Amino acid sequence: MSDKGERQAVIFDIQAFSVHDGPGCRTNVFFAGCPLRCRWCANPENFAARPHLMFSAPVCKWKNGCRACQTTCSKGGLTFDAEKGPVVNWDICNRCTTFECAEYCAARALKVCGKTYTVRELMKILRRDFNNWGSDGGVTFTGGEPLLQYDFLLETLKLCHREQIHTAVETSACVNTEHFLQLMQYIDFAFIDVKNMDDEKHKWGTGVSNEKTLSNIRALKKSGWPGRLVLRYPVIAGFNDSGENALRTIAFMKENGIAEINLLKFHRLGQTKWEQLGMKYEYATGGNVPLEQMEKLQDLYLDNDILCYLGDKTPF
Question: Which residues pair with 30 in a beta bridge?
Fold first, then answer.
């Protein structure tokens, strides 16, 4: 049990031995909660900033006769259908805080996504992983949007720097500017996503304006922050794969003294997660950009003296 008043955050995953999210070998800490609602998101379980239920129908053993969860929910969130097995009422289950059904599911078809950690508990994990990182590795805070859980992250970052742990962040920078600049003082390396330079298109794709992201990047560069910054965006067909968007991004980068960008290839690895959350995945078809088009965009950046990396090829 944590001490009263100890900082806490909801984290939905901690992955060791990552090699694509910053220099060296790293531990990735995935924070729950995000101000964006990207239509193609690979981690939709991070939308909510609290623990919540997920249900994987293909994993469920009801056809083998399992009924362990059938009578566990007193709120009416779970019923049984003779042909479909468990049926989740998401309007009810999305408000649940007790998750009795998941406790009884040995197959983990019903599971809770998100766990509350204290700073002390997280630092214990990072210290455990310290010897696995090598001289260049460290911790990457990602999500979701890690910067939303400001107080917890600030305390953790201060401890990391005191213990000489290299820190990286993957962020939309769509957060309070004062908090953003204060947190970034303790960040050594940053990926910042700029999904689309057109504000209306950005709103369509992510649900929010790009104004906060762009203004925070400008403020960061003006602050004299000494870390390394790489902009990036997933290239989505029909959304941000045009040369026009690339040229507007290039102009923004040059105006703000930013020299590196990472173009990510679209994938559908998150589709099953949308289904497990009872949500419709809009990009079950479409969205893919051929490698040839990705390379043309890369050439456009390179021709304008911007270092551009495709996929996981960012050099660290």
Answer: 13, 142
pLDDT, tens digit, 9 for 90 and up, residues 121-177? 999 999 999 999 988 999 999 999 999 999 999 999 999 999 999 999 999 999 999
Residues 6+ apart with CB under 8 A from 254: 304, 306
State how far the Cα of 299 lies from the Cα of 78, in Å rounded to an integer.
Answer: 53
Cα–Cα dist 196/209, whole Å: 10
Preceding peptide of 227 cis, ω within 30°: no
Confidence of residue 3 (pLDDT cuts 50, 70, 90): low
The model's pLDDT over 58-104, given as tens digits with 9 standing for 90+, comes to 999 999 999 999 999 999 999 999 898 999 999 999 999 999 999 99
**Total-model pTM:** 0.94
* DSSP conformation class of 3: P
Query: Can you state the angle between helices 150-162 and 177-184, rounded to 10 degrees?
Result: 10
Q: 């809009």: which residue's tokens?
A: 282
Instruction: Please give the structure tokens belonging to residue 199.
Output: 């504000």
User: In the predicted model, is pLDDT for residue 1 greater than 50?
Assistant: no
CA nearest 303: which of 243, 217, 232?
243
Q: What's the chain's Rg over C-alpha atoms?
A: 21
User: 3-state SS of the chain?
Assistant: CCCCCCCEEEEEEEEEEECCCCCCCEEEEEECCCCCCCCCCCCHHHCCCCCEEEECHHHCCHHHCCCCCCCCCCCCCEEEECCCEEEECHHHHCCCCCCHHHHCCCCCCEEEECEEEEHHHHHHHHHHHHHHCCCCCEEEEEECCHHHCHHHHHHHHHHHHHCCCEEEEEECCCCCHHHHHHHHCCCCEEEEECCCCCHHHHHHHHCCCCHHHHHHHHHHHHCCCCCEEEEEEEECCCCCCCHHHHHHHHHHHHHCCCCEEEEEECCCCCHHHHHHCCCCCCCCCCCCCCHHHHHHHHHHHHHCCCEEEECCCCCC
Amino acid at 89: N
